[in-house]
Each structure stands twice: as C-alpha cells, then as structure tokens.
C-alpha cells in the first residue's frame, strides 16, 4: 500500500510523492469534497487562486478532473478508470460530502482492492487525508456533517480505513480551519482515540509496512 496524506495541498514533500508514484504517472483529481460549492465558483478559484491539475502537471504528473458522481452505481466502470492511473489525488473541502460521493460510487471497495494490489497511490490533503482514517468521529468539529445532506438522511462517520489513525490537518498552522483542528485533536485526546495532528506542510507517507511522518 502506498499513501501520501498531506495537511495542505502537496505539502513540503512533492518530490517524495513523485518518487512514490513511479513510472505510472497518470493522475485523477477527485474534487468531490467541494460538491457543495457551485461549479462556477470552483472554476473561478482554479483560474485565479489554485489549480491542482496545473500543479500536478508541473511535477510531471499528467492530471485530469474525475467526478465520482458520474459513477454512482457503477463500480465496475469506476474500477476500470482507477486501474488505468498511477495516482488518485483527493482534494480538501468537506470530508463528509466527500465520503458520501465515495460510498455512492463504490470507491471504497475499488480503492481497497487496487491498493492491496499496489496498483496505484492514494494521495490527498485535508478532507482527502481525513477520510483515509477508520472514522470521522471528532472531525465534525472541523467539517459540518450536515452539509449537502437531504432531509433526514443519516450521517455516516465511517472512514475508508486505509490508515489506522484519525488524521487532523491544519493543526497549529494559522489556517482558517486551525481552530477546529485544535478542537478535534482535543476531543480525540479526551476519547483516547489514536490520531496524527498534521501542521500545514507536513505529510504522512505509507510504503508497505513503513509509515513516515515527514516534517
């Protein structure tokens, strides 16, 4: 299994991500954590502030946008698309919105199977890192779990369970979400739940049975 979990964007170790990906560099960028934001506003932000596709291209990782909503109820088609890439890069936003898209599309089972085969790298930042944990409990102090829900839709706190601890991004970083991160870290501490608090720039790298917290 290969994971690259960052607090903010690529962090300070983009060279490690490139090495981790290796020769199969085609990248799919999943932005479903931002589904609650109008598409026009997202396009303006990408054009004027931050474009993850362009950032990855600059590293030699050919990237394109990938919308999990196009694969709801179609896990076989999803598997075919993911198995053709070397990196799945999952953006920040709202972790609960992201998890709903992942579950609906069958992403959970597909990504577990491909990672077990060491067929690709799962990478992501902020919400993309949060969802890699076994649970999102406590992270509702950062992200509102009701965003994007419909009526009395049940809220799930189940994570992807790719990484054995909760991941708290933006801790002590001056980020707009840092206050929520500190509250989440305190809640997890009080509950005696294992977690890693990441400052912006820091990255968790998993290669097989080796896990490294990179400063």
Summary?
With 215 residues, the protein is an alpha/beta fold.
What does this protein structure show overall?
By secondary structure, the protein is of the alpha/beta class. It has one domain (2-214): Class I glutamine amidotransferase (GATase) domain (Rossmann fold, 3-Layer(aba) Sandwich). The protein is 33% helix and 18% strand. The protein is built from eight helices and nine strands. The strands form two sheets. It has a seven-stranded mixed β-sheet. A hairpin with a 2-residue loop joins strand 8 (203-207) and strand 9 (210-214). The protein is globular and about 45 Å long. The mean pLDDT is 95.
- The CATH architecture designation is 3-Layer(aba) Sandwich
Low-confidence stretches: none
Q: State the helix count.
A: 8
Strand content: 15-25%
Report the top-level CATH class.
Alpha Beta
Q: Give the domain tally.
A: 1
Could you state the oligomeric state of the chains shown?
Answer: single chain
Question: Mind summarizing the main beta sheet?
Answer: 7 strands, mixed
- The percent range for helix content is 25-40%
Give the ordered list of helices and strands: EHEHHEHEHHEHEHEEE
At the fold tier of CATH, the topology name is Rossmann fold
Label the structural class. Answer: alpha/beta
Measured distance between first and last alpha carbons? 21 Å
Average predicted confidence as pLDDT: 95
- How many individual β-strands? 9
Principal-axis shape equals globular
